[in-house]
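DM from R.C. (forwarded with permission)

"hey, sorry to bug you on a friday — could you get me a structure for this? deadline for the figure draft is monday and I only need the backbone to look sensible"
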Amino acid sequence: DCPGKEGTGGKKRNLTLLRNKLYLGQRRRTEPVVESTTTAGDHGSLRRSQSDRTEYSQKLQEKMAPQAVSSTPATPLQEEEEEEEVRRRMMARRVKIIAELLQTEKDYISDLDLCIKEVIQPLRNLQIARFDVDGLFSNVELVHQLSAKLLSLLEEATTDVEPPMQIIGEVFLQIKGPLEDTYKIYCYHHDDAHTMLEYYEKDEELKQHLRDCVQSLK
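My reply, with the result:
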């Protein structure tokens, strides 16, 4: 009811409204600045992230492809030494392969020797009418002879001959025809011999003879 008090209350309300307007106005002015600053910061972070990824990718490629990294070029002397080392290793490997070939052929001939002496010849000596020894073992004896010839030629080409001069390819070319003719017969009769062996194993008497031969081999 007091005019003085009412005027004072109106001033307070006006002051409050003025403060609110000033606060809202300040927010309008600062929000774009803050947004712009934040956006600029985001772009800056993005640029740094892309740069890091590019650097990491480059380092990864360098690790995966070390030959791409620049290095000091080899001198002619170094290149010659490296080539000589490669030739030396290849020659050493070739010598081992030839030695293994010779040893394998020797072992094969030894097995054929045992087969002929301890199996084929004793079965032939039995002279059993229903036992076809030649049909069962085909031309194994001819295979043995040809293998012995091959070994002899290989030894001739490698004994007391320097490794670079050991030309064994010519040996196989020389004996190519006889090898084909001999093993063609052996392979042709292989299935028939296998069927014949299965039939003989059903006959107890013949089966016992085969067991005796196997026991002599042991």
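R.C.: lifesaver. The helical segments are 3-64, 76-126, 133-137, 140-158, 169-188, 190-200, 204-217.
me: no worries. Residues 30-48 have pLDDT under 50 and may be disordered.
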